[in-house]
Task: inverse folding
């Protein structure tokens, strides 16, 4: 039956006739128009049949379900010519998801949408027995919700066919027209029905293949589990990996392993659960499930080896309490199979479906059962291996105990503090004893006590931790002051319920989860200090003798270690004290250096308060300044986060202490400190405490700050978080910092005085500038007047004034006058030398001629011996004349030598005068350099004053309204400093000009000195030449004397005349040559004299 939402179908009777007359031989009797219509219909059927075959062919080629669904909707939309084709799968009774869609562009997609089934025309999946046809949604009766859904997806007409799998409606194959209404044809319905059948066939085929693959995979998984069981020795690891593989294979939401306890209750010990579901097993949690039915029946059906399959928990007749537990963990369906260890039911293996009911397949039940059997084998194997392992452990335990004890003793001796010893020892002891907890308990003076260290296994309550402090006051131990332990006895309990402990004692042990324990005493010296205990929490335990001995030996090592630690602690405290003092000294030095380096009081206060607060590790450090009336205010502070601020840009805290006002500083004026460890314990007045509470102060130290001899203020360190026992070193440190602050204040006061002096220096610089300008003008006048002297004019004179330059001008005039006199003397001496040289030259010419005549006469005498006497007499007479001339030449040379000596002395006097003048000019240059240094110093003062004025202006700006007046003063000071800097720059330029001019004068003086030296050298050379002339004339005189002697001998000894004449001829020739040489020397002397005269003539002296 087909559900129709239209009024009529055209040609329905024709289709019926075609079906009835298809093989009738009387078709020739039908009218020709009907024959044409039937032919068209037959052709249409043929076309639809081809399209069906084409669709079937594509469907059969699909490799997987997703491709199959995509091909189906694409082919249907193409063949039908609709706007949308989709496949819809029911997920519940009345709703489902669109799992495949093909649509034309522009229409709202439905793929992946969860849509109610009512959108296709009927309410539940059970109603979709036949195709549902809607030609026009406006022609049928719709609910508002149904109308809203159709409008959302623009549906105007729809055709839906059910997809039935194993007698149940799995989903729908639907086509929609969105652009307009449509009258669906019967042949289209038939086509879709055929496609649905083909699709169902392919879906079943894929499902069969999938189940077959699952069976194969299940067999492989069972084989894999068996292999792991044979290889693994850890049952827990087998459970963990196997539950994951089982869940992945079954594609369920949870797989768990449940273990029975002796009372047939139990707990989950392993599971694999999907994301988003509640966990029943975690590292610190095992879910306990006490099933009363299983407890009453000691395993129920599972003890008989039966499995239990539940497809829907609400349809199995479970008790309401059972359903509530299942709902608590979101279970909707499950399979449970028993796990046997040997002949005993050990536990259960369960697979759960949480998302909804599930139709479990037979192969899935078989798979879970087989895995359960393999678990039983693994458990039996693990228990056997566990027994063997325990025996081997017992054999090795004694050796390990000795090794562990040696290791513990070594670590105890290496540790230097009790906490480290306790922490290390409890861990080592717990590992050695393999118990659940090892703890150290310390007695207090009242014989109560607390746990101070422990090592505890995972999952047990902690007794010791960063935020955990477990106090245990045992009345028996308090009454007996240690009980059996003070006697050195141990206490061994294998089961707390079997030794007759008091109920209150058992209750405390149950809180600590203890089932068995060993307790041994710990002595420090002869005093019972505490207890060392080992606990077994998981179950009772039969403690072995070696375990007790091991624990006793460990406690004895505690005693030895404590003595060692006490000694080291004493040494450490002394070292720490020395290190603390050294650190404080470094800090004080650092703070003092920073205070000295800073010139800004506010910066000094800021730096000091920060450094001191960090050093003392307190909550606040503040500086308090007294007013003239002994009230005061906080002017600087460094405060920790979250505490009230006393100083800030908009915060001004005034504290008027009446006691300090009345006593004008009280104890602080006497340089006393005030140390308060607790403000409530020093007898403060209520009003004082109230103010301190406003500032959140609990303890403080206050030291005075003196500026010179005057009490300037206070330096205070506050502890806000609680009371504090201030150490003497801390108070001393604060007092030293207070002294440094006082020195810094004095330094600042001195700086202000320096600033005042800078202003005075600026005024002096201005006066110095004017004087310097006057000095420069007069210096220029002096240099201008003396400039002709550089060109040789020694007649010029500098104008003389009554100042320093007048003295310098007078010295210059004296120098020029002396120099003029020297030049005059040099000129006179040079003229005399020239005249004498001319006369000597004439005498030498006569001497040369005479020598030549002598030579001729001697030559003639060789031929005329008779005339020898006459010639000899003539020679004697001429020799006398020559001797007279030589004597005159000697006298002339001696007078020339005297004149030269005077010239040298005069030139040396000029040289000394010029040297003195040069020294004075150098002193003038040095004075100008000193002036330049003073100017530079003034410039530096002006620059520093400008920087200080700028800083003051910045601080005044920070101070807001209170600093406006100070800002004006700072601006004026900065303006004056700028003017001073400009004036010093001008003075420096003038000084540089003076230095340049004096440098040029010094250079000129040096040149004059060099010229004087050269003149001196020339005169010395002339004197040497004159000395040579004197020597030559002396030799000539000697020769003449010998000639006279020879002639006398010639006259007396005629026998030897010839020989003597030859000697005389030879002597005459030598005389002639020497006279020529003397003439040459005198010509050179004459040239030198002319040059000296020319040089001296360059100076203007008249």
Result:
């Amino acid at each position: 039956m087909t559900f129709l939402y239209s009024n009529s179908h055209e040609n329905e009777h024709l289709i019926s006739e075609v079906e009835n007359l298809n093989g009738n031989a009387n078709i020739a009797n039908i009218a020709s128009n009907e024959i044409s219509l039937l032919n068209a219909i037959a052709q249409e059927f043929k076309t639809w049949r081809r399209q069906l075959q084409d669709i079937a062919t594509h469907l059969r080629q699909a490799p997987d379900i997703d491709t199959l669904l995509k091909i189906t909707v694409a082919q249907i939309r193409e063949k039908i010519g609709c706007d949308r084709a989709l496949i819809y799968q029911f997920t519940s009774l009345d709703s489902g998801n669109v799992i495949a869609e093909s649509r034309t562009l522009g229409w709202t997609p439905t793929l992946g949408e969860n849509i109610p089934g009512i959108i296709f025309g009927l309410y539940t999946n059970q109603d979709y027995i036949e195709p549902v046809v809607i030609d026009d949604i406006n022609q049928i009766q719709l609910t508002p919700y149904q109308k809203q859904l159709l409008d959302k997806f623009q549906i105007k007409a729809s055709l839906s066919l059910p997809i039935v799998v194993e007698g149940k409606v799995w989903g729908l194959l639907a086509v929609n027209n969105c652009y307009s209404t449509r009258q669906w044809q019967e042949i289209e319905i038939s086509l879709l029905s055929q496609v649905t059948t083909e699709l169902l066939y392919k879906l079943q085929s894929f499902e069969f293949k999938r189940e077959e693959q699952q069976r194969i995979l299940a067999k492989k998984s069972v084989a894999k589990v068996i292999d792991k069981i044979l290889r693994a020795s850890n049952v827990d690891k087998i459970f963990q990996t196997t539950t994951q593989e089982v869940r992945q294979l079954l594609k369920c939401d949870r797989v768990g392993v449940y273990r029975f306890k002796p009372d047939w209750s139990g707990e989950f010990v392993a599971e694999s659960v999907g994301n988003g579901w509640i966990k029943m097993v975690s590292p610190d949690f095992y879910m306990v499930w006490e099933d009363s039915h299983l407890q009453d029946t000691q395993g129920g059906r599972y003890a008989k080896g039966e499995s239990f399959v539940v497809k829907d928990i609400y349809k199995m007749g479970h008790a309401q309490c059972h359903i509530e537990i299942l709902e608590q963990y979101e279970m909707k369906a499950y399979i449970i199979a028993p796990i046997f260890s040997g002949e005993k039911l050990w536990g259960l293996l369960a697979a759960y479906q949480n998302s909804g009911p599930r139709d479990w397949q037979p192969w899935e039940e078989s798979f879970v059962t087989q895995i359960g059997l393999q678990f039983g084998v693994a458990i039996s194997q693990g228990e056997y291996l566990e027994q063997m392992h325990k025996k081997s452990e017992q054999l090795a335990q004694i050796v390990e105990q000795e090794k562990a004890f040696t290791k513990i003793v070594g670590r105890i001796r290496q540790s230097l503090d009790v906490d480290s010893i306790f922490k290390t020892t409890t861990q080592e002891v717990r590992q050695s004893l393999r118990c659940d907890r090892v703890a150290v308990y310390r007695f207090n003076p009242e014989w109560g006590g607390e746990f101070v260290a422990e090592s505890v296994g995972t999952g047990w309550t902690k007794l010791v931790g960063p935020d955990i402090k477990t106090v245990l006051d045992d009345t028996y131990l308090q009454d007996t002051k240690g009980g059996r332990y003070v006697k050195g006895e141990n206490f061994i309990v294998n089961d707390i319920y079997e030794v007759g402990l008091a109920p209150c004692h058992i209750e405390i042990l149950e809180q600590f989860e203890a089932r068995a324990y060993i307790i041994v005493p710990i002595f420090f010296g002869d005093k019972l200090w505490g207890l060392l205990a080992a606990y077994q929490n998981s179950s009772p335990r039969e403690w072995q003798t070696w375990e007790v001995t091991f624990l006793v030996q460990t406690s004895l090592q505690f005693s030895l270690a404590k003595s060692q630690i006490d000694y080291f602690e004493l040494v450490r405290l002394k070292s720490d004290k020395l290190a603390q003092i050294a650190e404080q000294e470094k800090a004080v030095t650092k703070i003092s250096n920073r205070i000295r380096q800073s010139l800004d009081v506010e910066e000094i206060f800021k730096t000091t308060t920060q450094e001191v607060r960090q050093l003392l590790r307190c909550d606040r450090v503040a500086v308090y300044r007294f007013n003239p009336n002994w009230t005061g205010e906080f002017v600087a502070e460094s405060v920790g986060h979250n505490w009230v601020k006393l100083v800030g840009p908009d915060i001004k805290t005034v504290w008027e202490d009446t006691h300090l006002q009345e006593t004008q500083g009280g104890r602080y004026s006497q340089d006393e400190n005030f140390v308060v460890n607790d403000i409530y314990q020093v007898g403060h007045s209520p009003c004082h405490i109230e103010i301190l509470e406003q500032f959140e102060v609990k303890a403080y130290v206050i030291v005075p700050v003196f500026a010179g001899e005057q009490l300037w203020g206070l330096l205070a360190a506050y502890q806000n978080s609680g009371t504090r026992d201030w150490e003497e070193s801390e108070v001393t440190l604060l007092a030293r910092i207070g002294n440094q602050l006082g020195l810094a204040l004095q330094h600042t006061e001195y700086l202000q005085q320096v600033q005042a002096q800078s202003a005075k220096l600026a005024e002096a610089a201005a006066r110095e500038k004017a004087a310097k300008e006057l000095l420069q003008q007069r210096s220029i006048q002096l240099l201008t007047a003396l400039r002709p002297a550089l060109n040789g004019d020694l007649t010029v004179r500098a104008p003389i004034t009554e100042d320093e330059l007048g003295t310098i001008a007078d010295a210059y005039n004296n120098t020029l006058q002396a120099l003029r006199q020297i030049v005059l003397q040099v000129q006179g001496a040079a003229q005399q030398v020239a005249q004498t040289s001319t006369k000597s030259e004439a005498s030498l010419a006569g001497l040369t001629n005479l020598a030549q005549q002598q030579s001729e006469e001697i030559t003639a005498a060789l031929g005329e011996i008779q005339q020898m006497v006459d010639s000899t007499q003539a020679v004697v007479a001429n020799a006398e004349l020559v001797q007279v001339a030589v004597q005159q030449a000697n006298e002339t040379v001696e007078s020339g030598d005297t004149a030269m000596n005077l010239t040298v002395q005069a030139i040396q006097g000029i040289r000394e005068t010029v040297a003195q003048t040069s020294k004075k000019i150098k002193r003038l240059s040095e004075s100008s350099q000193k002036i330049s240094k003073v100017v530079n110093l003034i410039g530096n003062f002006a620059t520093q004053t400008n920087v200080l004025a700028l800083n003051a202006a910045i601080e005044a700006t920070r101070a807001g309204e209170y600093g406006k007046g100070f800002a004006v003063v700072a601006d004026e000071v900065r303006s004056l400093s700028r003017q001073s800097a400009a004036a010093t720059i001008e003075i420096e330029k003038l000084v540089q000009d003076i230095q340049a001019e004096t440098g040029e004068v010094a250079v000129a003086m040096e040149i004059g000195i060099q010229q004087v030296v050269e003149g001196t050298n020339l005169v010395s050379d002339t004197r040497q030449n004159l000395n040579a002339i004197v020597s030559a004339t002396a030799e000539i005189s000697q020769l003449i004397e010998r000639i006279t002697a020879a002639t006398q001998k010639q006259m007396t000894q005629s026998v030897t005349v010839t020989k003597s004449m030859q000697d005389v001829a030879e002597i005459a020739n030598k005389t002639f040559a020497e006279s020529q040489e003397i003439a040459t020397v005198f010509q050179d002397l004459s040239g030198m004299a002319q040059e000296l005269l020319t040089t001296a003539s360059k100076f203007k002296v008249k």
The chain has 22 helices and 28 strands. The chain has five domains: 41-210, 232-390, 415-456+488-571, 598-726, 807-940+1003-1097. Residues 41-210 form a domain with the Beta-Lactamase fold (CATH 3.30.450.40). Residues 6-28 have pLDDT under 50 and may be disordered.
